Amino acid sequence: MLTAPMGLLMLLAVAEFLIGLVGNGILAVWSFREWTRTFKGSLYNLIVLGLAVFRFILQWLIMVDLSLFPLFQSQHWLSYLNVSWVLVSQASLWFATFLSIFYCMKITTFEHPVYLWLKQRAYYLIFWCLLVYIMITYWLVAHISLKCLIPSQRNSSILNPLSNLHYMIILRLNGGSALPFTVFLISSGILIVSLFRHHRKMRVHTTGRKDSRSKAHITVLKSLGWFLILYIVYVLASPFSIIYKYFPDNLSQVFISEILMGAYPALHSIVLIMGNPRVKQTCQRILWKAMCAWRS
Questions:
Q1: Are 9 and 33 in contact (CB under 8 A)?
Q2: Using only C-alpha atoms, what is the Rg of the chain?
Q3: Using an 8 Å Cβ cutoff, are 51 and 268 in contact?
């Protein structure tokens, strides 16, 4: 039975879950419509579509895990839920990294030869890195299935098939987040430095006069700052959510770590909506129609 603090944590998790479903659902619908409108589809819309879809699924997996883990800690099928969560989690991190790289390629103005070489081949290099990563990930998943899942089926007397060994393997599999996380930090760092330098030059040349471009750069910096904070919090909290599952008495730590994780897909969807005027206007129209339908 849940205590009062656990109940409050569950309410917070439900609030994040609903925000994430609405925000990522709007982003998915908008980006899919924009991507298919002219049958050419921009790369930005494709990245946002993949990001929103995987985050939508990730929100469900986090909520299902929070709801069922306290009741069915020893059930064998939770192992499949853990593996699915790792795969969807890392896919969402990759799309978030692609979004950061897209911003970096479009906005940065560095003239260093090495940077220009990387900029010309960025998408080609990312494609091959992602392909190798997918192959390694699915090899590890097959290894987990043979090493951890099948033996637990052979011995029906095992009451707790989700042993510490299973969570240790899941933790190692989750270590694959290090690659997209590193690429994200590099691209975000380059982007922040470029935006800050450009904004400082604009302040000098405009002599205190704020124009629309200066405000746009400030908005992008704020959006990128929230993006960076939420991404880092998610990556740092995800291994703790696995570690705390080693011990059945640490339910509160599991809830806290997964609530911190849930803030990333939920709140960043709102940041993306507020930072894109077209999506923001679409969201406002949807909310206005919903309010009118509710009042009638």
A1: no
A2: 22
A3: no
